[in-house]
Amino acid sequence: MKPTLVIMAAGVGSRYGGPKQLEPLGPGGETFSDYSVYDALKVGFGKVIFILSREIEAAFRNQVGKRIEKHCEVMYVIQRLEDLPPGFAVPPNRKKPWGTAHAVLCCRSVVDTPFAVINADDFYGREAFRLMANCLSHISEASESVEGYLVAYKLEKTLSKHGPVTRALCQVDERGYLLHIQELHKVQRVGETVRASENGKHWIEVPADSLVSMNMWGFTPAIFPELEAMFLRFLDEHKRDIQTAEFLLPDVVGDLVKAGRMKVKVLPTAERWFGLTYREDKEEAKAIIEELIQQGLYPKRLWD
């Protein structure tokens, strides 16, 4: 069977000021998800699963889903705060989703093949999907081992001109396997260097060619029991900050790698990444897509 593409589209876009996953960026109103699915289908992916919130489900199905449904099998999963292990309840006043690792866990009943996970508000490039498809297609469907893949980008190719960003820095061994993943905050270019800071006062310089994760992961269904166990631990360890704590993929994968329970092959790419962090990023994203269309990489009307 062909690998599945899972697209996380339940985020609230607090810094951006609205649902980024619905932003029209292409000439025909195409979103980043349209381009991701288009690229994924070109290189061998099959079914697509969108993870949505209740609040945007109807709008997303109408604006994005109905276009893509004509070209492949599409399923929708709702990320609910109530999707908790027995004995747990949603904390009072909790509004924010539980995080990206919880989003993937929400798909456990509908994913039965190796699968890739991406964000709905990022543009990854076709070569990134090709790298992932080649790896996932060679995993046995019956594999019970916890295998993983991560497409990693050069840090300098993932920065915004309009403000600092958060990036997950990857440390890789000599065979290309992930050793450690560390989240860096307030990452930005300052003159000829790239710097990061936890508090905006003490800065560290980060090599511009460092490999970073942009949340393009590859997994097998064997990840789901691990996520279930880790989510239980997360809920127990975050009782004091349960209103705001997030169950995130980089944290979970990093812990599994550190514990020796998972191997993650890092797939470096020279692809051009861009996304929507700030409202000002939108016009730049539209201009880059128009440039790619002029180069012949995409048709002007994507799904025509």
Structure description:
The structure is a single chain. The chain is of the alpha/beta class and 304 residues long. Strands 1, 2, 3, 4, 6, 7, 8, 9, 10, 11 and 12 form an eleven-stranded mixed sheet that branches. The protein has seven helices and 13 strands. α1 (32-42) crosses α4. The longest helix is centred in the N-terminal third of the chain and has 15 residues, at 54-68. The mean pLDDT is 93. The protein has helices at 32-42, 54-68, 100-105, 126-136, 223-237, 249-258, 281-294; strands at residues 4-8, 48-52, 74-78, 115-119, 122-123, 147-154, 165-172, 178-190, 193-197, 203-206, 211-219, 263-269, 274-275.
- Beta strand %: 25-35%
Radius of gyration: 19 Å
What distance separates the N and C termini?
Answer: 27 Å
Largest sheet: 11 strands, mixed
Mean pLDDT, nearest integer? 93
Instruction: Report the structural category.
Output: alpha/beta
Give a count of the beta strands, DSSP E runs of length 2 or more: 13
Count helical runs. 7
Low-confidence stretches: none
Helix-residue proportion: 25-40%
- Globally, the shape reads globular
Order of helix and strand elements from N to C terminus: EHEHEHEEHEEEEEEHHEEH
